[in-house]
Amino acid sequence: MTTLYYSTGSCSIGIRIILEEIGLSFDSIPIDLAAREQFSETFASVNSKRKVPALIREDRSLLTEFPAIAFWLARSHMSADLIPEDLEGQTRVLEALDFMVGSVHMRGFTFIIVPMKFSTSKETQQELVAHGRAQVDLGMARLGKTLGDRDWLLGDYSIADACLFFLTYWAKREKIDLPDNLIAWHERMMARESVLRAFDGESLEKL
């Protein structure tokens, strides 16, 4: 049985959406980041990186890092049509994943959500939040331009949309303005059965 280690409302919701899109049966085990369960010896014995998402595959091997998990799920379940079949198309999906995770998430939202990880100074934390918001604004503007007037980020629905979803969800949660086309895109995502099942799986507030 495939097992997803996740934290409610974290980026791991994107992997849960992909699993639901594929229709793969899986167990899910919550890791409470606020309670620092990621640093427990129990979780460290599963994933020494002490982070989510983490996926235990049917052969009991561990896979970590959002882009790698998403890519493997899509490529190993090609019938789900979550990634193009051609090299150029797959490369563009990976390019989008890397930008969303490496830039918008790690260089933007991380400073907004957990500035205390980097400084105990309240003044510095406020500066980090401001910096993070500026980076998110830039990233979302770029993603809005990429989306354009299409229904899905890269044309056809793909794992890139599942990744973008946790960013727009966080933006709405943090009261960050989004381009109009990303707001409409988020609403389309919220109408997908896979997203609704993922929300139910985490008892997550719908935004």
Task: Give me the Rg, rounded.
Answer: 17 Å
Average pLDDT reading: 97
Based on CA inertia axes, which overall geometry fits? Answer: globular
- SS-based class: alpha+beta
The largest beta-sheet arranges its strands as 2-1-3-4
Q: Which series of helices and strands comes N to C?
A: EHEHEEHHHHHH
Report the β-strand fraction as a percent range. Answer: 5-15%
The percentage helix is 55-70%
Major sheet characteristics: 4 strands, mixed
SS field, number of helical segments:
8
Number of strands: 4
Rounded to the nearest angstrom, the distance between the terminal CA atoms is: 31 Å
Low-confidence runs of at least 5 consecutive residues: none
Write the layout of secondary structure elements.
Blueprint (H helix, E strand, L loop, with lengths): L1 E5 L5 H11 L3 E5 L10 H4 L9 E3 L5 E3 L1 H11 L10 H27 L8 H26 L11 H15 L6 H11 L2 H10 L5
Parallel strand pairs: 1-2
Antiparallel strand pairs: 1-3, 3-4
Describe the structure.
This protein is α+β, with helices and mostly antiparallel strands and 207 residues long. Helix content is 56%, strand content 8%. The chain contains 8 helices and 4 strands. The protein has helices at residues 12-22, 41-44, 66-76, 87-113, 122-147, 159-173, 180-190, 193-202; strands spanning 2-6, 26-30, 54-56, 62-64. It has a 4-stranded mixed β-sheet with strand order 2-1-3-4, with helices on one face. A hairpin with a 5-residue loop joins strand 3 and strand 4. Helix 4 runs parallel beside helix 6 (159-173) and helix 6 crosses helix 7. The protein is globular, with a radius of gyration of 17 Å. The two termini are 31 Å apart.
